[in-house]
Amino acid sequence: MCTVCGCGEPNEHKHEHSHGHHYGHGEAGAHVAGMEQSRLVSIEQDILSKNNRYADANRRYFNHNGVLCLNLVSSPGAGKTTLLSKTIAAIKNEVPVSVIEGDQQTDLDAARIREAGSKAVQINTGKGCHLDAHMIGHAIDDLKPASGSALFIENVGNLVCPAAFDLGEAAKVVILSVTEGSDKPLKYPDMFHAANLMIINKTDLLPYVDFDLDACCDFARRINPGIKILKLSATTGEGMDGWLNWIKANCEIARTGGYSQEQSS
């Protein structure tokens, strides 16, 4: 059970009428047992408006200091930490890098990132399923990312809640691996709609798995026609140049203070 948003709240009940099992109907697009849709909408608006104020403060900090902030999101096991480690090793001599790591427990990923040569702060969310802008603000205070640097946020492995929370980032980057289903963009549309870039990782495994690359790209573009797509293998390095060049190009934009909320959405 998620104690932040209430999804999955235990709900044992018996009734005689029948209904379907799609709980995404109604103005809230979600279901919490015993709570009206209007109340759900009100709670969501309160939470997100407060989060957005913190996100705006983060964005002002990034723009003022020319920092490119990227929010990496995925399911668990898509290869975010490996991708980050290889990215840091490849660009750390050209672009200063720092990382905010999000996990429910442990600082194992932050340790891997420090071994790769980057400063890192670990945020443990406990039973929480996402990072919010207030958490990021405190992490920035500790990290103090250098002017003109790249700051990566490795969000908690989850394709649902992180879609709704603006952290002040320049872009959300959603990472999908070929060991997952190619229909994930259709199953989790909010995340693919919110993302600016989709990375399909672990392409070295394509000969061994049943993953339809073209269908996955088509599904993502049905949800978000403007989404950019890169295909790579962080393990072998195939396709990494496209990702590294994308980061460097966006660092140049960030150094001009050029990211507004509209540009990052």
UniProtKB/TrEMBL annotation:
Pfam family, any one: cobW
One GO MF term attached to the UniProt entry: GTPase activity
Q: Does the keyword Transmembrane apply?
A: no
Q: Which InterPro entries does this chain map to?
A: CobW/HypB/UreG_nucleotide-bd (IPR003495), Hyd_mat_HypB (IPR004392), P-loop_NTPase (IPR027417)
Keywords, ordered alphabetically? GTP-binding, Hydrolase, Metal-binding, Nickel, Nucleotide-binding, Zinc
Domain of life from the UniProt record: Bacteria
Q: Name one GO biological process term.
A: protein maturation
- The chain positions of domain CobW/HypB/UreG nucleotide-binding read 71-230
Q: Which residues form a coiled coil?
A: none
Record flagged with keyword Isomerase: no
Q: Output the SUPFAM superfamilies linked to this UniProt entry.
A: P-loop containing nucleoside triphosphate hydrolases
Query: What PANTHER family does the annotation carry?
Result: HYDROGENASE MATURATION FACTOR HYPB, HYDROGENASE PROTEIN ASSEMBLY PROTEIN, NICKEL CHAPERONE
Record family assignment: Belongs to the SIMIBI class G3E GTPase family. HypB/HupM subfamily.
Q: What is this protein called?
A: Hydrogenase maturation factor HypB
